[in-house]
Q: What sequence folds into this?
C-alpha cells in the first residue's frame, strides 16, 4: 500500500470467478503529499474468463515529472474467488526492472531485480504488489481480518488488514457510502495505511491515506472511474 492503491472491481463478496464482471475498469487518482500535488496514477483491471491482467501507471506532476514514469503489471487467474498471480513486473525510469514469477504447482516464487534470480517457498495467502489490492477489496462481507505475503520482485513483506465500519465521504466524484479497511501495525507505530472502499460502485477504493514513520502523509483521491 505504500505507493499505490488500485482500482478494484465489483462484487466484493463474490464466491466464484464466474461472478466477477468481465471487461475492463479504470480509476484515475490524484496523489498529494503534505498538501503538494505529486503525481497522477491510473489503475486498470481487465478480466476475461478466469484470467485477469492489472496495469498501474504513474507520472509525476510539476517538478516531480523529472522523476520519470512508473509502470506495474500483474497477470494471473481467478480460482474459487481467489486471485493467483502468475507474473509481476515493476518498471521505473532509471532503475532496473523488478520481476516475480509464481509457480502454484511447485509452491515457489522466483524473483529478480538487479542480479540473478532467487527462489523462495510460497507462504499462505501469497500475492504480488498489485494483486493483493484486489484481495483486500474482497474482504468486506467475507472476512474481518486477513494476512497477506506480498512479493514485488525485490523481496517479501507481510501485511495484515482489518475491515472497519461504514461511513460516508465526499470526493470529486461525489458522495459515497464506504467501508474503511485499515492496515494493522504494532502498538505505538506512527505509520499507518487506510483505504475507503465505495460500496457503490462495487467496493472501489475512492480514497487512500498513507502515513510514513516520519509522519509524512500522502493521499490518493479518485477523480475518474470508467468501465468498458
A:
Amino acid at each position: 500500500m505504500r505507493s499505490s492503491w488500485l482500482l478494484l472491481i465489483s462484487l466484493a463478496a463474490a464466491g466464484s470467478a464466474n461472478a466477477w464482471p468481465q471487461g475492463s475498469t479504470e480509476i484515475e487518482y490524484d496523489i498529494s503529499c503534505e498538501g503538494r500535488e505529486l503525481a497522477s496514477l491510473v489503475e486498470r483491471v481487465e478480466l476475461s474468463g478466469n484470467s485477469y491482467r492489472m496495469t498501474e501507471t504513474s507520472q509525476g506532476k510539476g517538478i516531480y515529472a523529472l522523476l520519470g514514469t512508473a509502470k506495474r503489471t500483474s497477470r494471473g487467474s481467478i480460482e474459487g474467488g481467489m486471485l493467483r498471480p502468475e507474473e509481476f513486473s515493476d518498471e521505473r525510469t532509471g532503475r532496473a526492472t523488478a520481476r516475480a514469477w509464481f509457480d502454484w504447482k511447485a509452491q515457489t516464487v522466483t524473483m529478480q531485480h538487479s542480479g540473478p534470480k532467487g527462489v523462495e517457498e510460497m507462504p499462505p495467502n501469497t500475492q504480488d504488489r498489485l494483486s493483493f489490492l484486489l484481495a483486500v477489496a474482497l474482504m468486506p462481507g467475507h472476512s474481518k481480518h486477513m494476512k497477506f505475503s506480498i512479493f514485488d520482485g525485490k523481496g517479501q513483506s507481510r501485511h495484515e488488514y482489518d475491515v472497519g465500519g461504514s461511513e460516508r465521504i465526499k470526493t470529486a466524484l461525489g458522495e459515497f457510502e464506504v467501508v474503511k479497511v485499515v492496515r494493522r501495525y504494532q502498538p505505538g507505530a506512527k505509520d499507518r495505511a487506510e483505504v475507503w472502499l465505495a460500496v457503490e460502485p462495487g467496493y472501489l477504493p475512492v480514497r487512500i491515506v498513507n502515513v510514513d514513520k516520519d509522519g509524512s502523509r500522502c493521499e490518493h483521491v479518485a477523480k475518474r472511474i470508467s468501465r468498458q
Q: What stands out?
A: The chain is about 5% helix and 60% strand. The longest strand covers residues 156-171. The helical segments are 131-137. Residues 1-20 have pLDDT under 50 and may be disordered.
